[in-house]
């Protein structure tokens, strides 16, 4: 059972938009920055979003992040077959004094 | 270019020990927050430990008292000493640079298998 809650899967057709939610509490998302990662099969995770809503250099603006209260959201627009991957949210938990990840969401392009 | 290369994984019996290494190039380990993150086969990401630039360390409850994170500044290398290993510690172990606000660089991972 992960500290952060994500839907197990989401799907949409090519070109469409998907959103992935990440729900936590005041000890983690509510008072700390959120990051998002993409993991393609057999590879290491890749940072997509940092500090809630910032994109590292090289990440297309099709990917966006937002945070409100104790929840965060990753949005992917113009869905492509190459976006099929597992996506994870992460943050620090001040009560646990530990890093925490969501359980991951598998994105399927129909 | 930043590169993180993990090594030291392998097969170990329950109760055994293993030391993982993460050799860094393109960044100075002691000037960065450095983490270990693991992923059990077919499962999600699981944060393990972090060492701050000042030397403070933090651990997941599941490994506290058994694992120790450290670094060798002269070798620019991060370590994870794992003792009293359990079957449930079986995973790919990644080192990653940054804070949980954004782990920007990851190694390719090293596989640890705990089995009799």
Describe this entry's structure for a reader.
- The complex is a heterodimer of chains A (110) and B (116).
- With 110 residues, chain A is mostly beta strands.
- Chain A contains no helices and nine strands.
- Chain A is 0% helix and 45% strand.
- In chain A, strands 1, 3, 4, 7, 8 and 9 form a six-stranded mixed beta sheet that branches. Chain A has a three-stranded antiparallel beta sheet with strand order 2-6-5, with no helix packed on it.
- The mean pLDDT of chain A is 97.
- With 116 residues, chain B is mostly beta strands.
- Chain B has no helices and eleven strands.
- In chain B, strands 2, 4, 5, 6, 9, 10 and 11 form a seven-stranded mixed beta sheet that branches. In chain B, strands 1-3-8-7 form a four-stranded antiparallel beta sheet, with no helix packed on it.
- The chains are: A mainly beta (110), B mainly beta (116).
Helix-and-strand structural type of chain B = mainly beta
Please, what is the oligomeric state?
Answer: heterodimer
Report the average pLDDT across residues of chain A: 97
Sheet with the most strands, sense and barrel status of chain B: 7 strands, mixed
Low-confidence stretches of chain B: none
- The total count of strands of chain B amounts to 11
> What's the order of the H and E elements of chain B?
EEEEEEEEEEE
Give the distance, in angstroms, between the N- and C-terminal Cα atoms of chain A: 28 Å
Inertia-based shape of chain A: globular
Question: How confident is the prediction overall: mean pLDDT of chain B?
Answer: 97
The chain-level structural class of chain A is: mainly beta
Helix share of residues of chain A?
Answer: under 10%
What is the CA-CA span between the terminal residues of chain B? 40 Å
User: How many helices of chain B does DSSP assign?
Assistant: 0
Instruction: Bin the strand percentage of chain A.
Output: over 45%
Number of continuous helical runs of chain A = 0
Q: Greatest chain-chain interface?
A: A-B, 30 and 24 residues
Order of helical and strand elements of chain A: EEEEEEEEE
